[in-house]
Amino acid sequence: MSQTFTKSQVAEHKDDKSMYIIIDDGVYDITNFLDDHPGGAKILKRMAGKDATKSFWKYHGKSVLEKYGTKLKVGTLAEAAKL
Q1: Are the C-beta atoms of 10 and 27 separated by less than 8 Å?
Q2: Which CATH number fits the domain that encloses residue 56?
Q3: In a domain, 58, yes or no
Q4: At CA 34, angle to CA 36 and CA 13, rounded to 5?
Q5: Is residue 52 domain-resident?
Q6: In principle, which of 29, 38, 63, 65 could form an S-S bond with 69, CB 3.0–4.6 Å?
Q7: Where is the binding site for heme, in residues?
């Protein structure tokens, strides 16, 4: 079941027990993907708990998100209140 997360909730998931990243408006659990990431675990650990959108699109195409996204996506990012 998909959840809605705030940025602060995603930020809580930044250690070896639970690592989430944000890509666009999606929230992805990368905890069990670290060893499978072709670029290594280090960069994923550095981005854990953060918005990785710019970094992701700098190095990956749409096909990467299509391939892994459905397995890793745990929810969406809540819209920030606009003043």
Answers
A1: yes
A2: 3.10.120.10
A3: yes
A4: 150
A5: yes
A6: 65
A7: 37, 60
Q: Which residue type is seen at 47?
A: M
Q: What is the total residue count of the chain?
A: 83
Amino acid (1-letter code) at residue 73 = K
Distance CA 71, CA 74 (A): 9
59 phi/psi in degrees, rounded to 5 = -110, -10
Domain count, the chain: 1
> CA-to-CA distance for 47 and 45, rounded, in angstroms?
5
- The residue range of the domain holding 30 is 3-77
Give tens-digit pLDDT for 40-83.
999 999 999 999 999 999 999 999 999 999 999 999 999 765 55
DSSP of 29-46, one letter per residue?
E-GGGGGG-TT-HHHHHH
pTM of the model: 0.91
What is the phi-psi region of residue 40: left when phi exceeds 0, alpha when psi lies from -120 to 50, beta otherwise? left
Binding residues, as ranges, are 37, 60
Specify if 82 maps to a domain: no
